[in-house]
């Protein structure tokens, strides 16, 4: 079953709900109200109810949402109910940190291929993954990998994106401070860390 | 001059405009139309004009925006026209990558204090910054540092945030997959990398 009309902003919040639900489960909570979820996640109860109603999760009045059932539903909608393999391109400081990042497992995500252009890195095994030559990105086609992570300098990001798309990648998490031109069928989400930090001074009090 | 009514979403896009303008400057472009900026940034011309009008930047009909002048204005609004120092807490894989990240300079941001709880790291000099004991966060008060970056495990994030707030930090970039409870006067932006990656499978074609 697909849910074609879920807005991007709702999709953005679904993993947050999932995290909140998993937290409830850890605490032994079986049913959770939108108000309790709201307190956990700092998202309004009305927003939560609206988001969840998009896929028919209405909860039980006076009881709330069945945490296990709702978590399963959200995983299904996000298509993370089965494992998703990702290819990482760029094993510099950030790429290395991403490869070692422990947080992906909770969402069924796994970096199972790594590429770099540094002869000193190619062939090495890091976190059980063999570093491959970035010129071999086309081999992804045979590996059923649809997700790519770009952690290369901005100057190389577009050519890496082109190669990833050619190799069948359909979703890209991009850390390069660069707008990637890709076909419409490919979803790109960019995290420009410096740009996010650059927003914070705006909120500082004038005296600071 | 303060611009109190600029929506958060506009503030979020201002660094993007700045980056586009700097790119234009690099290419020797003196004036840029909202249409040209739109092509660079993949943001609609109407949105660009609306965002910029919030602070009275209307451009010249038929000419466009003076790139140097607009870049200066945006830096002023974001309060990144003077350098901003940040304290990094957590020198694990991600924290180390952040400390070495070359992208902050473009926005006048500098990590000028680093804290960790690992005795093996405390006292070391990394990127010209001496790693301090995380129990000494209160010393930030004397350093005129108002921005903090949290790159510690989720289990430690809240206590670090509490200590940062106590030490006068008013803006936090949080990488821990955890909702931080802070006073209203403190602005928190969380980048949960795994959660962002977890959104990508949703957009994959059903056959994938």
Q: How would you describe what is shown here?
A:
The structure is a homodimer of 208-residue chains. Chain A is of the alpha/beta class and 208 residues long. Chain A has two domains: 8-78, Arc Repressor Mutant, subunit A; 84-196, NAD(P)-binding Rossmann-like Domain (Rossmann fold, 3-Layer(aba) Sandwich), CATH 3.40.50. Chain A contains seven helices and nine strands, in the order αβααβαβαββββαββα. The first copy, chain A, has helices at 8-26, 34-41, 45-53, 67-78, 93-100, 154-166, 193-197; strands spanning 31-32, 65-66, 84-89, 109-116, 125-126, 129-133, 147-150, 171-174, 187-190. In chain A, the strands form two sheets. Chain A has a seven-stranded mixed β-sheet with strand order 5-6-4-3-7-8-9, with helices on both faces. In chain A, strand 5 and strand 6 (129-133) form a beta hairpin. In chain A, helix 1 runs antiparallel to helix 4 (67-78) and helix 2 packs across helix 3. The model of chain A has no long low-confidence stretch (mean pLDDT 93). At the A-B interface, helix 1, helix 5, strand 8 and helix 7 of A face helix 1, helix 5, strand 8 and helix 7 of B.
Which CATH top level class of the largest domain in chain A fits? Alpha Beta
Counting helices, strands and paired strands, the structural category of chain A is: alpha/beta
CATH architecture descriptor name of the largest domain in chain A? 3-Layer(aba) Sandwich
Multimeric organization: homodimer
Distance between the termini of chain A: 52 Å
Number of E-state strands of chain A: 9
Q: What is the makeup of the main sheet of chain A?
A: 7 strands, mixed
Briefly note the CATH topology name of the largest domain in chain A.
Rossmann fold
- Low-confidence segments of chain A, given as residue ranges, are none
Mean pLDDT of chain A: 93
Question: What's the helix count of chain A?
Answer: 7
Instruction: Give the helix proportion of chain A (percent range).
Output: 25-40%
Strand content of chain A: 15-25%
Q: Strands of the biggest beta sheet of chain A: in what spatial order?
A: 5-6-4-3-7-8-9
CATH superfamily of the largest domain in chain A: NAD(P)-binding Rossmann-like Domain
Order of helical and strand elements of chain A: HEHHEHEHEEEEHEEH
- Give the tally of structural domains of chain A: 2
So what's the overall shape of chain A? globular
Biggest interface: A-B, 59 and 59 residues
């Amino acid at each position: 079953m697909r849910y074609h009309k879920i807005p991007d902003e709702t999709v953005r919040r679904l993993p947050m709900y999932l995290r909140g639900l998993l937290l409830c489960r850890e605490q032994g909570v079986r049913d959770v109200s939108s108000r309790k979820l709201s307190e956990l996640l700092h998202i309004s109860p009305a927003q939560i109810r609206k988001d969840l109603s998009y896929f028919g999760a209405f909860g039980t009045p006076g009881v709330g949402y069945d945490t296990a059932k709702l978590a399963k539903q959200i995983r299904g909608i996000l298509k993370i109910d089965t494992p998703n393999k990702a290819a990482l391109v760029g094993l510099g400081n950030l790429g290395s940190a991403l490869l070692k990042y422990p947080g992906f497992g909770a969402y069924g995500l796994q970096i199972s291929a790594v590429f770099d252009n540094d002869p000193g890195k190619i062939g090495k095994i890091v976190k059980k993954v063999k570093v491959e030559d970035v010129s071999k990105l086309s081999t992804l086609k045979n590996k059923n990998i649809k997700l790519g992570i770009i952690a290369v300098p901005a100057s190389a990001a577009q050519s890496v994106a082109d190669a990833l798309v050619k190799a069948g990648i359909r979703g890209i998490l991009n850390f390069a401070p660069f707008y990637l031109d890709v076909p419409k069928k490919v979803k790109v989400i960019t995290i420009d860390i410096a740009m996010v930090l650059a927003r914070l001074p705006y909120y500082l009090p004038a005296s600071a």
